[in-house]
Amino acid sequence: MAEGSRRYPERPILGVGALIFQRNRILLAERGKQPLKGYWSLPGGALETGETIESGLRREVLEETGLIVEPMELAEIFERIIPDAQGRAEYHYVLIDYICRVKGGEARAATDVSALAWVPRRDLIRYKLTEGTLPVIERAFERSKRR
Q: Structure pTM?
């Protein structure tokens, strides 16, 4: 794997994602770069060497959305493996998603995000979501109702 490249990694890449709720809506980010450009997912990205999971999550959310968040609760850990036409793992991520609370900032699309949307639960099916994202969001909505 070339330095900095995420394609055909020697090892899975550790990613972090934020489930950010506001008045029964969740914040989604439209991916502005490959892989999965044009799909909607949770704000987040890859953890950097020497960075804790929570500090990486805060950094990624701030870079992509302009929001300052506090990770509150681990929501889910899952894998996303995207094979190429020959079946080799072109991308391989292990994703750690946290339910987060907004502490400051103003929501605006930035860095590798082309748009942001606060989406009510009932409208999630209208969005082209990355694989595995909808079940994670649904489970987080259920957890947030129990609080």
A: 0.90
